[in-house]
Design goal:
By secondary structure, the chain is of the alpha+beta class. Helices cover 29% and strands 31% of the residues. The chain is built from four helices and seven strands; from the N terminus they run αβββααββββα. It has helices at 2-23, 101-116, 118-125, 190-202; strands spanning 53-59, 78-84, 90-97, 130-139, 145-154, 159-170, 173-182. Strands 1-2-3-7-6-5-4 form a seven-stranded antiparallel β-sheet, with helices on both faces. Strand 4 (130-139) and strand 5 form a beta hairpin. The longest helix is centred in the first third of the chain and has 22 residues, at 2-23. The chain is globular.
Length: 205
Amino acid sequence: MRNLRTALLTVMATGLAATALAQVPAAAAPAPAPAQPKFLSANQLPASHTPWTAGPIRKGAPAEGSVCTTGVAPAAGTRHRDFRTELDTNARQTITVAPTTAKAKALAAELRSALETCLDRLKEQDPGLEGEAFHQGRITVEEGAHVYSIDTSYPEAGSTDIGLFSVGRDGRTVTVVEWGQMGELDGAPLAGFKKTTRTAVAKLH
């Protein structure tokens, strides 16, 4: 009898402990971190005579190279990726996640303004520079994207360069895509760059 009573007490104690544990609310699982915006891959760049190579994704705004937009995007919330070919054609994508949608809108507007005034600023810095700049249209994707071209030349040196640029936004995320090589606008893959821009904005989220 004593052994039975001991066994019953043990079962009852175990049951009470299990009930007590069941009544303790489980700790809430931590919320998953939001997915990072996705970058372009090398095969999503405009067609080139030699294959594109994609560099690593780096944190922060580019330290150099983005002549028209340097200093506009904040380092916080920004990442960038460079691309290149064997024929001195290069490209870059920069992505910034702003704290709010309103700040993302403001950043996109500031980047567009920087591109629209870029050639004039370059001419002020170098009076020997000549060129033309055009707004190449708006692309309907997410909150929209705008494409620009800047054609520059140094007549004395006989060199010409063409750059294609775009700014697009999806919610709080803003992306800038840059493409450049030696040559003139009529030899640039404008249609391919617009397709790349559409892909860049569409795949952010």
